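Class, discuss our next protein.
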Amino acid sequence: MKLLVDMNLSPRWVEVFEREGWQAYHWSTVGDPRATDRVVMDWARANGCVVFTHDLDLGALLANTRGQGPSVIQVRTHDVMPQSLGERLVQILRQYESVIEGGALITVDEAKSRVRILPLK
């Protein structure tokens, strides 16, 4: 799995994902930090990455365009740092890996995670 960490999350997430054997990039290392959501999504799609974000706009973009991908993992927790959420997120990524490969929007909050298959209706 390849993951693209959005600008609104710490670059430290890259280390978390790489420890698990996944390729990971922080947007600041591959694109313009001021790029639009559409540019980020287009780059992720072209490079086979799952987008990891704290931004609801990417899920809305998938819904509005009925996009088939890329998959998006959005966290809706107060503390989005790897030391607080890392273990749980890795577990969720492993649990839903096959669904993510096919295209999904996964929302993670303090209590649960919700999986929606793409395209969203």
About this structure: Strands lie at 2-5, 23-26, 50-53, 72-75, 104-108, 113-117. Residues 2-117 form a domain with the Rossmann fold fold (CATH 3.40.50).
